[in-house]
């Protein structure tokens, strides 16, 4: 039987104090362009809550309204600046400590987020997280198309990504950390789930300890 232990962390609102995608766009394009893009995308933005528009395509559309057909290297450079200069102030120290606790026990830590991988992978590398399952931007000839490549990594898609990632090596124990409706399915899959505001963090066991999938 596998003794693999996996800790799956949502990012926005779980590891961070706020929406990192919004912060990334503000840092990259500035508040004026952000406001103009919000007005241009208003019909799709207001349609998310009642289900009239989809989260993923709307997010990609908003980014395109701000940055346009930017080249990949331009967005990658902006992502690196964001990780180096703005993102550290948005992180929750207690959740970074939780990541380190899992790593110290030999658990595999994976980031599972609806935010784009363009900056998440850069940040994850700084804290020793080697696996990032997240929304991917679509590129054509090195230029951002204004669409996502594949599905938005939210809700049921988080579970689908996790299952595809571990394949036949399902963990003996799965921890899941989240903060919103988009993490409900991932929490339901876990042996030990924590949603912000619902109670204390679960106790940890070392890899090879008790726990059943």
Report on the structure:
With 213 residues, this protein is of the alpha/beta class. It has a single domain, classed as HAD superfamily/HAD-like (Rossmann fold, 3-Layer(aba) Sandwich). The protein is built from 8 helices and 7 strands. A 5-stranded parallel beta sheet has the order 3-2-1-6-7. The protein has a two-stranded antiparallel sheet with strand order 4-5. Strand 4 (137-140) and strand 5 (143-148) form a beta hairpin. Helix 1 crosses helix 3 (55-67). The termini are close together. This is HAD family hydrolase. It holds the Pfam family HAD. Keywords: Hydrolase. GO terms for molecular function: hydrolase activity.
Uncertain segments are: none
CATH third-tier fold name: Rossmann fold
Share of residues in helices: 40-55%
**How far apart lie the N and C ends?**
10 Å
Instruction: Determine the structural class based on helices, strands and strand pairing.
Output: alpha/beta
* The first-level CATH class name: Alpha Beta
Enzyme class: hydrolase
EC number: 3.1.3.-
InterPro entries: HAD-like_SerB, HAD-like_sf, HAD_hydro_SerB1, HAD_sf
GO molecular function: hydrolase activity
